[in-house]
Amino acid sequence: MSTIGKAIRAARMASGFTQAELADWIGITDGNQISRWERGVVTPSADSVGELTRVLGVRLDNSAGDAVSC
Predict the structure, then answer these.
(1) 49 with 42: CB under 8 angstroms?
(2) Dihedrals φ, ψ of 59, to 5°?
(3) What phi, psi does 23 have (nearest 5°)?
(4) Which residues form the HTH cro/C1-type domain (predicted)?
């Protein structure tokens, strides 16, 4: 699991969202995409990172593959 994936999972769980709920909140129709991000299979786009930041209330630094919560 990537660092950003771990941060997404931790923030999602702390917020009480399921993967499907989070996908819906950020406008992604494929709920499995959240799982792929969390497992590090793919890295979220800059737009998706912005939406995750808005919904989860954390800052995710996609450029270096690191994640930092605020």
Answers:
(1) no
(2) -100, 125
(3) -55, -45
(4) 8-63
